Amino acid sequence: MATGTRRERERAQREELIVRAARELAEAEGWDAVTTRRLAAEIEYSQPVLYSHFKGKNAIMTAVAAQGFEELVTELRAARTAVRGGPEALAAVAAAYTDFARERPALYDAMFTHAVEVEFATPDGPAYLREGFGELLQAVEPLAGDDDPGVLTETFWASLHGLATLERSGRLPMSLHDERLRLLLGRFTRPKG
Amino acid sequence: MATGTRRERERAQREELIVRAARELAEAEGWDAVTTRRLAAEIEYSQPVLYSHFKGKNAIMTAVAAQGFEELVTELRAARTAVRGGPEALAAVAAAYTDFARERPALYDAMFTHAVEVEFATPDGPAYLREGFGELLQAVEPLAGDDDPGVLTETFWASLHGLATLERSGRLPMSLHDERLRLLLGRFTRPKG
DNA sequence: CAGAATTCCTAGCAGTGCTAGGATCTGGAT
DNA sequence: ATCCAGATCCTAGCACTGCTAGGAATTCTG
């Protein structure tokens, strides 16, 4: 029995190794550079070993994305709790979100453009999704007014996501990012006239 | 010389055939299904013929995207000019934009997620980009207030893009689309308090 | 009608994700 | 210590991708 647990531990370690290697490779050279062959070479095992841990390359990306969600949640929480609340909280959370997307583009891609296997939009989805949305919700809710806070949070999230993706792909110049974020926040914090 | 012009005409026709086939295949089965072999079979020529017209698959996608931009411009213009102006114009343009993304997902992908070769964010970019942005701008401008109309338009565009992509990928349920759009428009038309 | 030039296809390259099959190594029982 | 069952892992290969070199076939020109 003792050997069994050791093997399990080693397997878990290697699985972690795979995810870390995939993430580092993606962050260094983009997801296109993450091929099963290169990944196998990186961890010094053969390709089929990858498939004994994950169903396929997509599952590996999903595992990387899961790490990303965890980290995004902690960053959003840190940003939100660092300020008093109200408009400042929304600004802090928004800046944290777009910073995350800019600084970890490969991670962000895995989370929000690839890896559709993550179950969004369902009440029983992964905990990190509920928590992440919860962080946004807590920042948006005080400013919702008559609007449904949940739907308004979705809308605000979509705006941040749009900014992040368009700026990252070069379709909007990054130089005006702060200004765009300022205008967006202005519109969402503006009280009903 | 007469034969020369005939050949040119035939070449242009075949090029159009390639773009149309790529577009139809993408809209029917998604861009993953658009391989050079299938495309060649569809137009009843061999693969290398594709490369005598386009530098590669990406160039074909760019050509499809160009068609998309032209169509998007006309739809935005139609939506904007159909109403009087002010908030209604913004609502009409926003609905036209998200409708376009939902009804022509493959086209939208080629325009805004793939095909980075299109020169966004430069003054001398393609005409359809300037025109398309101009349509949004004309709808946003009357509501800009003290804000820079151009930057505000970029921000509004990003919000629409975020909604379109998150809803399309299943990360936001499509059922609440109208409500989200309503809230977004409410925030962007709300006068400064 | 022969020669030149264009057009086009066959065949192939290097790469992808993924998998079947057998070799190798490990752990436990005799 | 030995032998066998089972887990572990790798080699080799499949079907596919985008793309290209080289030669065959067709077309136009003198």
Q: How confident is the prediction overall: mean pLDDT of chain A?
A: 94
Helix segment tally of chain A: 9
- The ordered string of helix (H) and strand (E) elements of chain A is HHHHHHHHH
Indicate the low-confidence ranges of chain A by residue numbers: none
Strand content of chain A: under 5%
Evaluate the radius of gyration of chain A: 19 Å
Question: What does this protein structure show overall?
Answer:
The structure is a homodimer of 193-residue chains. Chain A has 193 residues and is mainly α. Chain A is built from 9 helices and no strands. The N and C termini of chain A lie far apart (70 Å). The interface between A and B is large, with 37 and 37 residues. Chain A binds a DNA duplex (30 and 30 nucleotides) through helix 3.
SSE layout and pairing:
The structure is a homodimer of 193-residue chains.
Chain A: H1 2-29, H2 36-43, H3 47-53, H4 57-81, H5 87-103, H6 105-112, H7 127-140, H8 149-168, H9 177-189
Helix pairs in contact in A: 1-2, 1-4, 2-3, 4-5, 4-6, 4-7, 5-6, 5-7, 5-8, 5-9, 7-8, 8-9
Chain A binds a DNA duplex (30 and 30 nucleotides) through helix 3.
